[in-house]
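Researcher: We plan to redesign the surface later, but first we want a full-length starting point. Tokens attached.
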């Protein structure tokens, strides 16, 4: 008697999986939500176990508003970037145990921590793929004085404005779905694992309180220390 329901169960499961992966036109043209990325360490100069290093990157967005959060399992340490052009907020926040610092940037600044990626160039390869149900395009990334050929994937099916502002990928007018960052001697690969349509509270795009303002150079040095601790 129970076996007669098994085919129905598998049909319903397949429908659920397809619905969660491919998305409809509203899903593909979303303007607000969150993207969760898994992190793989291509190179890790830290003396800490990889279990104690950041495992996930979360980007919350709404049109031209962004909150990017990279946190470690140690205490409350991590890096957060908040972009809110209307309020002139282009801030990078660093929590390092009990210390709280931030750099007040502008729309043309490169976020502290990315000095190793300055001068990189991006070239479209023409290749296409699907990641988390979104049609993506591949690009080759060349970095000065590096012989390694690297590739990234991005999509134009998430309708946000200037999604890569303050990052080394700012010339790409698309949401990154598989990409890398080089911070000091560490190289991390980020791959989108889940995309969620949801309302993001206004507070996620507001200036944070009780942080000490520092220079980009100072924050850059602290980020490199945190990554290579």
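Model: Full-length starting sequence:
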């Amino acid at each position: 008697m129970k076996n007669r329901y098994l085919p129905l169960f598998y049909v319903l499961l397949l429908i659920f999986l397809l619905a969660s992966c491919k998305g409809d036109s509203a899903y593909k043209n979303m303007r607000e939500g969150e993207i969760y990325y898994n992190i793989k360490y291509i190179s890790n100069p830290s003396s800490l176990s990889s279990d104690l290093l950041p495992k996930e990157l979360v980007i919350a967005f709404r049109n031209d508003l962004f909150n990017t959060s990279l946190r470690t399992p140690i205490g409350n340490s991590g890096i957060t970037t908040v972009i809110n052009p209307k309020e002139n907020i282009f801030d990078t926040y660093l929590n390092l145990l009990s210390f709280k610092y931030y750099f007040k940037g502008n729309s043309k600044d490169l976020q502290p921590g990315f000095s190793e990626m300055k001068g990189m160039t991006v070239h479209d390869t023409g290749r296409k793929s699907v990641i988390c149900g979104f049609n993506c395009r591949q690009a080759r990334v060349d970095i000065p004085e590096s012989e390694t050929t690297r590739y990234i994937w991005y999509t134009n099916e998430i309708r946000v404005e200037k999604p890569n502002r303050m990052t080394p990928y700012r010339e790409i007018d698309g949401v990154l779905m598989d990409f890398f960052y080089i911070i000091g001697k560490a190289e991390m690969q980020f791959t989108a694992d889940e995309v969620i349509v949801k309302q993001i509270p206004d507070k996620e795009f507001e200036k944070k309180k009780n942080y000490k303002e520092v220079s980009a150079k100072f924050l850059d040095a602290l980020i490199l220390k945190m990554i290579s601790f």
